[in-house]
Design a protein that fits this description.
globular; Immunoglobulin-like; 25% strand; 779 residues; alpha+beta; five-stranded mixed beta sheet; Deoxyribonuclease I, Chain A
Length: 779
């Protein structure tokens, strides 16, 4: 069969499937099931001994018939279960298992069986650092669960840390596809846009499969398959794999600490709370406002909120925050749901009813050991349990005959405004985010489905895989609001915003100009081509050292010269051929002189969410390296951006290969921090002849590095050693201190080595370097 015929067969099959789906009420048999969903930010606190989270997870009631309601599915999401050193450095499941035991014990207590056996079994679980999701299914329905998959998407610092992001579990329950997503978005009262971006990132990049488990990114906190899971999940590598996005599922429950706040002054919020005027506050809820504007969670629903804000409380009290920060009370913890079909029809009685009916939506007031209150909801959900094959075959025959008659009568047709869309972004600087908006209108006689693809990977006869999109750098720098696909009824319109923001890892690879074509694909119709022309001005970001101007030094004043008039160069000004570019020198020297950088606070979510680097970036573009008026944290973050944007890591890939050539096997062992504290890590397991491999690596680098790279490497190490916390401070057992210390190691190692080696090797190498430098300084 020719490729042309294959394509026509594929399109005809897709069209038939789509129309069969639209008429599924005629042949599907639905049955109501109960789903309980819950979210809880535990603030890195462990529950008191023998705690039962009964108020949170016990939502059983008696129905109108006097029947005792027990959920069929329970989905439980936690945030901030662990922000200690272990969460950042190694895949320790201790706290994960502890919370699973607490949840399991609570469920067993709340929903006892007559024989004392477990009524619920764990279908699957997944963790992304402190974000944890469990899905339990009643034992009588476990055999009806299939195609279990899960995924995780980090949205934290530079898109690589999992302190923020989302995790999801997807599966088929009878004949319905279900998806549960647990998230933790950016914090901060003025960070609505960042929360929106976190949602868009998770929504667009979370991908499930009906075959082998797949994640958008192989990530350190991506939990392996749960042992002894009873859910069937065939993993035949030879079978064809279908990729699922979140909104491809029939039913989605999306919950978590979304961090949206109330857009009112703190004192006014507290006044309304004292008056119990919840409705006045709900009108100013940021999430509600963003949903009404279709900025986030388009098509999702949430029951009306009739409970008090769930954040932020003084621990073990009913008092809202009285600390120095005096946070504004807000509904940060939410549960939303989405369904493809809001109204379904009972086949035998022809009665129509809502596919999801909220029964309860509330917070647990008596669980007070965190600064959040847990939120839970119970829902009556219509699940497709079977097909009437006789009716379905009849409808299929009708559709085939109808398609034969309409083959040339109804072709999907759209118009784009502005016509012949041409995206032109000029002089885009590093960290800039620019946008282009256009309108799609369905002017045809039938509904149409549109989606946007990079021309280099698009084939109309098969879906584009997420891995292929990652391999197209410019497309990975684009975001689409809302995310596609776009389903338009007759005369319906859809506004689409395309945003471009250069990512650090691509800043050297795309050159100065980007000329590409995007395809707005119309299913069964004519495609539209969108030209994308971007002129990039990366300035120093992405430049190799030999592309910078010479580094100059005033031999009389004994200081570097960061800006000079070429006409005034005199004999005392000499070129330092072995020194790194003046920009790097200026940043490091300024930081060293101040000696006021608190490394343990640099990467906190609160500071990162409020950081604005545009002004200092603009000054760097003007070649003005006088940074006296900027906070140290801004200088430090600019230095890290420059290091991560280098086309070749400061420690080149070739050198890394030589260093780690014999360290491919992994095992647990303890690693000594330069402060004297210890850290458990999965670092390379070395044979006796290799035990000093990492220490010798420092000397090896001295020999292998080029002069400029070597100079900057040791300047950077000396600065880190000077800024490192004291041994007494680092040995403190405070979880927040350990967490901050270890995420520093993670980010700093990534800045030096990029992602060429694995995470454990990067970290053990950095620690060896810092320890070696400490020994030199102590002599």
């Amino acid at each position: 069969m020719s490729s042309s015929n294959n394509e026509k067969l594929y399109e005809a099959t897709k069209r038939l499937e789509k129309h069969l789906k639209e008429r599924e009420n005629e042949y599907l048999i639905y049955k109501q099931h109960y789903i309980l969903a819950g979210t809880f930010n535990v603030n890195n606190r462990q529950a008191p001994p023998n705690t039962l989270l009964e108020e949170w997870l016990y939502r059983a009631r008696h129905s109108a018939k006097g029947e005792h309601i027990v959920p069929h599915i329970i989905a439980v999401g936690f945030q901030e279960i662990d922000t200690s050193s272990g969460a950042y450095i190694y895949d320790d499941k201790k706290k994960e298992d502890e919370w699973e035991q607490i949840v399991r014990r609570t469920i067993k207590h709340c929903y006892r069986s007559k024989h004392g056996t477990d009524e619920f079994q764990l279908l699957n679980r997944i963790r992304l650092m402190g974000i944890l999701l469990f899905v339990y299914v009643h034992h009588s329905h476990m055999s009806k669960c299939s195609s279990v998959s899960r995924a995780s998407v980090p949205t934290g610092f530079m898109g690589i840390t999992g302190n923020k992001g989302g995790v999801g579990i997807s599966f088929r329950f009878y004949e319905s596809t279900l998806c549960f997503v647990n998230c933790h978005f950016a914090s901060g009262e003025g960070q609505t846009q960042r929360r929106n971006e976190d949602y868009q990132t998770v929504e667009s990049r979370m991908t499930f499969t009906d075959g082998i488990n797949h994640s958008y990114k192989d990530y350190i906190w991506y939990t392996p398959t749960t042992p002894n899971s009873l859910a069937p999940n065939a993993q035949n590598p030879m079978a064809s794999t279908r990729f699922w996005k979140i909104n491809d599922h029939d039913i989605v429950f999306w919950f978590g600490d979304m961090n949206y706040r109330i857009s009112l002054p703190n004192d006014q919020v507290r006044k309304y709370l004292n008056e119990l005027s919840i409705e006045s506050l709900y009108k100013k809820d940021q999430l509600r406002a963003e949903m009404n504007e279709n900025h986030v969670f388009t098509g999702y629903c949430e029951p009306p909120i009739d409970f008090m804000p769930t954040y932020k409380f003084d621990v073990n009290t009913d008092d809202y925050d009285t600390s120095e920060k005096f946070r504004t009370p807000s509904w940060t913890d939410r549960i939303l749901y989405h369904t493809k079909r809001s109204i379904i029809q009972h086949k035998t009685s022809n009665a129509s009813f809502q596919s999801i009916i909220p029964l309860h939506y509330s917070c647990a007031k008596t669980i007070k050991f965190s600064d959040h209150r847990p939120v839970s909801g119970l829902y009556h959900v219509g699940i497709k349990i079977a097909y009437d094959d006789k009716v379905m075959n009849r409808i299929r025959d009708e559709l085939i005959r109808e398609f034969d008659r309409e083959e040339n009568d109804a072709i999907p047709t759209i118009e784009i405004y502005p016509r012949s869309p041409a995206i032109l972004f000029n002089n885009i600087r590093y960290l800039d985010k620019v946008s282009y908006s256009f309108l799609i209108k369905n002017i045809g006689e039938c509904p149409c489905a549109c989606s946007i693809h990079p021309s280099s990977t698009f084939e109309p006869t098969r879906p584009t895989k997420i891995k292929e999109l990652i391999e197209v750098p410019y497309f990975d720098c684009l975001t689409f609001t809302p995310n596609g696909p776009y389903i338009l009824q007759r005369n319906e319109e859809q506004n689409v915003e395309i945003s471009f923001k250069m990512k650090t890892r691509y800043s050297w690879s795309l050159g100065k100009k980007l000329n590409e074509i995007l395809i707005l694909h119309v299913e069964n119709g004519a495609d539209t081509f969108i030209t994308l022309d971007v002129t990039l001005d990366m300035g120093p970001f992405g430049l190799a050292f030999d592309q910078f101007p010479p580094t100059l030094f005033d031999s009389e004043k004994r200081q570097y010269i960061y800006s000079i008039d070429p006409k005034r160069i005199c004999e005392r000004v000499v070129e330092m051929k072995n020194d790194p570019p003046a920009l790097y020198v200026s940043l490091i020297e300024c930081l060293k002189e101040r000696n006021d950088l608190n490394l343990l606070s640099v990467f906190s979510g609160e500071i990162q969410d409020s950081l604005d680097l545009i002004r200092i970036r603009n000054q760097i573009y003007e070649h003005d390296y006088n940074f006296e008026n900027y906070p140290s944290i801004n200088l430090f973050m600019m230095l890290l951006h420059l290091l991560q944007a280098l086309p070749e890591p400061l420690i080149s890939r070739d050198i890394q290969d030589k260093i780690f050539l014999k360290t491919n096997n992994s095992n647990n062992r303890s690693s000594q921090l330069p402060s004297g504290a210890t850290m458990q890590s999965n670092i390379p397991n070395e044979s006796p002849s290799q035990q000093q491999h990492m220490t010798k690596a420092v000397s090896f680098i001295i020999e292998q590095l080029q002069p400029k790279e070597r100079n900057l490497f040791f300047r950077f190490l000396l600065f880190l050693q000077k800024s490192w916390p004291t041994p007494e401070y680092a040995r403190r057992t405070d979880n927040n201190i350990q967490a901050a210390l270890n995420i520093c190691i993670d980010i700093l190692a990534l800045s030096l080595l990029h992602e060429h080696t694995n995470r454990n090797q990067r970290q053990s190498f950095l620690l060896a370097c810092l320890n070696e430098e400490k020994k030199k300084n102590s002599k």
